[in-house]
Amino acid sequence: MNLLVILPILIPLTAGALSLLGRHSQRVQAALAVIGSVALVASAVALLLATWEHGHIVTELGRWPAPFGIVLVSDLLAAIMILLSAVTGAATAFYSLGSISIAHRKGGYFPLMHLLLAGVNGAFLTGDIFNLYVWFEVMLVASFSLLILGGERAQMEGAVKYVTLNLVSSALFLSAIGLLYGLVGTLNMADIAVKLGEVDSGMTTVIAMLFMVAFGIKAAAFPFFFWLPASYHTPQVAVSALFAGLLTKVGVYALFRVFTLIFDMDDPLIHQVLLWGAGLTMITGVLGAAAQFEFRRILSFHIVSQIGYMMMGLALASVSVLALAGGIFYIIHHIIVKANLFFVSGLVYRLRGSYELKQLGGLYRDKPWLALLFLIPALSLAGMPPLSGFFGKFIVIRGGVEAGAWALVAAALVVGLLTLYSMTKIWAEVFWKAAPEHTASAPSGSNTLLYATVTGLALITVAIGLGAQPVLVLAQAAAEQLLDPTRYITAVLGEAP
Amino acid sequence: MTSLMALVVGVLYAAAIYMMLRRSIVKLVIGLVLLSNAANLLIFTAAGLRRDAPPLVPDDAQVPAGLVADPLAQALILTAIVIGFGVLAFAVVLIRRAYEVVEADDMHQMRDTDT
């Protein structure tokens, strides 16, 4: 048993359970949110360092040996994702302490937040395909409840779509697992990878496509993204930020895991579907954003468009290691930046009482520091050097050039430009133009914690941009691990296949 | 037997998708129920239908004698049923709340957040 691999799941689960027991005391909830999130960050850092040093870290739960028992596996990609989820979780915890109302806290906000993190971390660490499904459901149930906390009409309408599409995705995922089990008779992902190599059946492609659709819905890839812009702008802004940062990326992570480990990326059909999916996801997302005039809806559509860059990295993985490394770099950059932009939109709402661009304005004059804090993630999202987004896009596109995928490279560049258009639209409308006549007065209450969270994430963005080299080295090492599945298989099954 | 089950699974999927394409949110949830059951039956069928003994190990042995049914597929289905039950219970409460707030059970009345 290796405690390091279990802690990222155990800490939020414990914090969530204790938080539920202490739900009548605001101080207990707040203390648990702080302690839980800080402990999670610490354990995530320790896990990443250990994984960097030793390679794959495997733990067999209940000492049932693989492939019979459930294993938890930490490779570099999983450890990176855990750290990102811990940082986003901590940021959300601090932001929530300053922004979530007492009524919502009594509705169980903090226990659900911890539970969501436990589900996300479990999905990153598990090495068992059915266990992945179970963690997905843990995450989903927590996210359903967070989404409707407050019970307003928009939330209900958004939640009906969100719940339906996610349950359809789960059913397809479950069907794929059933067919896969029927074919190879095992659930351990490393074992599946070995056994599936020995099977020559058209069923493999069917199962691969079922996984693609199931994870594509979770990741909000084209053409399955409709649930995301219909629901992500409806809940509390801290919830929006947590979802925007983490949830779709769990789908992307599952795609990365399954299509590097289990299925053969050289299969022309899988390759083509991923390529087209990546390109169309980028373009439709950014065009959708261009048509929007609500702060959080613009950001929601940009999540979709950015998923395309990550899929582009995966799609080109069989041709260029650099592209896959770029995809991983992009995930690192994107989670931090996207959560931060939602946090900024929440601050704007607290100051002006609206998310509609038309009703906002004049914030650069009133709050120059907030304007700066918006500019850092916004320009990073658009890919301005020297911020993190520039390097993310640069590496993915460089990988695309190496692979000779010119159409996709052109799409990625144009989408980058259109992202800049969206961000300047927000800048011009919210910060630059004069405030409209009937501006709401600033509501009372301290925003210190919110500013601190936003500043912290902005600093991380700048740090990733200025220290891009070490992050790239990490992403490249993770990509090389992914592209050499024998290392994963040997680590789990204990012998060369 | 397997072909019959395959047919049943197929019909269940088709019925589920048909129900989910209707405008009523009650039918939407019925569709979700059918879909989750279709997936469970699919696992059951894909894992192999056979008339073997239950997977019980005799007292004086380490392994079961002869061919037995695969218990893992049944464990998967059991887990999936429990999860599906919890999630669908949530979905039922959700559509009830949505009906109260929107005052209609029509998906076309729920398009405020789409545009």
Automatic annotation (TrEMBL), chain A:
Keyword Signal found: no
Transmembrane spans: 6-23, 30-50, 70-97, 109-126, 132-150, 162-184, 204-228, 240-263, 269-291, 369-391, 403-428, 449-468
Highest rank taxon of the organism: Bacteria
Protein's UniProt name: NADH dehydrogenase (Quinone)
Main location (coarse class): membrane
Species in which this protein is naturally found: Alcanivorax jadensis T9
Family classification: Belongs to the CPA3 antiporters (TC 2.A.63) subunit D family.
Keywords annotated in UniProt: Cell membrane, Membrane, Transmembrane, Transmembrane helix
Location of this chain's protein in the cell: Cell membrane; Membrane
Membrane topology summary: Multi-pass membrane protein
Taxonomy of the source species: Bacteria, Pseudomonadati, Pseudomonadota, Gammaproteobacteria, Oceanospirillales
TrEMBL record, chain B:
InterPro entries registered for this protein in UniProt: CPA3_antiporter_subunitC (IPR050601), NUOK/Mnh_C1-like (IPR039428)
Cellular location(s): Cell membrane
PANTHER family reported for this sequence: ANTIPORTER SUBUNIT MNHC2-RELATED
Transmembrane portions of the chain: 6-21, 28-49, 72-95
Location (main, coarse): membrane
Taxonomic superkingdom: Bacteria
Protein family per UniProt: Belongs to the CPA3 antiporters (TC 2.A.63) subunit C family.
Record keywords, A-Z: Cell membrane, Membrane, Transmembrane, Transmembrane helix
Protein name listed in UniProt: Monovalent cation/H+ antiporter subunit C
Topological relation to the membrane, as annotated: Multi-pass membrane protein
